[in-house]
Every structure is written in C-alpha cells, then in structure tokens.
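Our consortium's second objective concerns turning raw sequence data into structural hypotheses that experimental partners can test. To show how far this objective has progressed, the report includes one record in full. It was chosen at random from the queue rather than selected for favorable results. The single chain below, 325 residues long, was entered without modification.
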Amino acid sequence: MIIRLSPALAALALVAASAFPAHAQFKPTKQIEFVVHGGPGSGNDVFARQLSTIIDQEKLAPVRVQVVNKPGGGATTAANYMASKKGDPYTIACFTNIWLLNPLVQKAAVNRLQDMSPIARLVVEPALVVVLADSPFKTLAQFIDAAKANPGKLKWSGGSILSRENTVRQLLMQKTGARWQFISFPSGGERLAALLGGHVEMMIVDPSEAVEQIRGGKFRAIAQVSEHRLPGFPDVPTIKEAGFDIPNVPQMRGIVGAPGMSPEAVAYYEDLFFKVSQTPAWKKFLTDSHLDGEFVRSAQLKPFLINFEGTLREILKGTGAKVVR
C-alpha cells in the first residue's frame, strides 16, 4: 500500500526537516590553535607553519590558524595539552610517529594519539642516509663491514632514542650483527653540525634538511629510508636495494583534533586540509622538500594508526626495547 501525504502534511514535514538538520555545520569564529610538539625551527614547526601560511594566503579559513609550540618529553607535553582541551573545536595538532612511540615505552605518556580526534594524514616522509662527501664509505655495506670490524667505534647521529634514526640503526644492527654508537642531539642543526665537524661518521636526515649540503658537495647520500627511490635522488638505492631487508620505518605527518571533537568540526578540518593539499603552493612544498603527499581522510586514519602502532610495537620489541603497552 502506498501512503500519500496531503499537501499540508508534506509542507509541514519539509519545514520540520529543515528546522532540524541532521548535521549542523561547524564554522570557526575565533582563532584556531595549531599545536606542534617541537620547538621553533624544528621539522614539525616548519611543516605546521607552512600549512598555516597557505591557509592564510589562500584565504581558506575565516580565522587565523596560529601555531603554538609545546615541546618537551618527545610529544608528551603536546599530547597532555591536547587532552586538557577535550571537546574544544578550536585546538588541533600536527602529529608524527613520536606520538605513537612515546606511550609504548613511557608509562607517564598516558595521552595517546588514538585518544585524539583523527582528522587527516598529509604526508609520508622518507629519509636519506648521508656521510661526508670525502668519507671512505661509498655504500651502506661498507659502513656495516667497518662497524663489524670495529665494534662500537663508529658513530651515527640522530634525535631521541625513539627516533627513526635510532630505530633504523637498531634494525640494521639486529640484521647484521654489527655494532656502532648512537649519538643523540636535540636539534637537527646540531646533528648536521656533528657530521660536518667529523664528530660522527653517518646520519639519517630528512631530504629537505640535507639537500643543500648535498648540492654543495659537503654530504653524499648512500641510501634512502623509503619504499622507493625519490625522484630527486634517482641514483641512491633504498636500504633494501643496498642489501639489507629490514622493515621500512616511514615518518608520517598529519592532523588530529582535541579528544572528543565533534564530527562536524572534524569534517570541517578534514575539508580544510584537503583544500590545502590541492593548492600549487603545497604541491611545490612537497616537491621542494622531497615528501610523498598522500592524503588519508579521517575515516581511514584511525584504523591506520591502530595498525601502525602494532607495527611499531613489534619493531621496538625486535630491537630489545622495553615496551610498556
């Protein structure tokens, strides 16, 4: 049986539907806080400020997106700050792998990335293994052989013990039986200076941080931490191509909101950063920085983070790290 509404009832139903929309749209009316876990000039800071600048220049948001630095404890200080803003639609953050790694090894890091409101993943960031241009090591295999012959003598610089630099080192040592030191520095500039000064023999570095030194003839790239060769470095093999079949450790960068952010606010920010990803300025930034632009939306991001955390947990266990979660 087909039930037909009278014109009056049909009009009433239409008014009711318009009066109570299924999803009220969110539109910001005041400044947005964009939290980064690094200090001014750090990779995460530069990344976030590039996003903020494009949003401003392209007039993609009606309000200012202000970068706020919350360094300390890896990403613990930033994660704690985000947790304190539960439900706030005006607080977002730029995350990297460290947001997943910290809670795996530190009991005090109780605010996890999965507790935040996933918005989008923007890039996967490869890295280069570099030496001084006049280094005797022409290949990664030569460095490994020298490390085997001189256990604990050679040095490799990087960030924290949870950084990709140290994770790759641990995986290579586990695979080959070679041993060498890891020298931790708090800033990228100090890591570069250590290699330039000959205080370490090798380092893993973001391509954007090393390209000037490579073009200037001071550094030489001997391997890539990537699934495939970067267009800017077609003659440099990946670690797997160099003969070492270890898990690839991608560095990702993306956006989350404060815990409990409304679906409407999440949808707004997802759309905002998708618009950023389509601009010529962003595409130029990706090319200049040798980044893989891969936009992953909110619905796909949460399961990805859960799976990736599991991968990182197994990698940490395999390197002998004490995992607390």
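The partners drew two points from this record. The CA atoms of residues 133 and 220 lie 5 Å apart. Confidence is low (pLDDT under 50) at residues 1-23. Both points have been shared with the crystallography group to help prioritize constructs.
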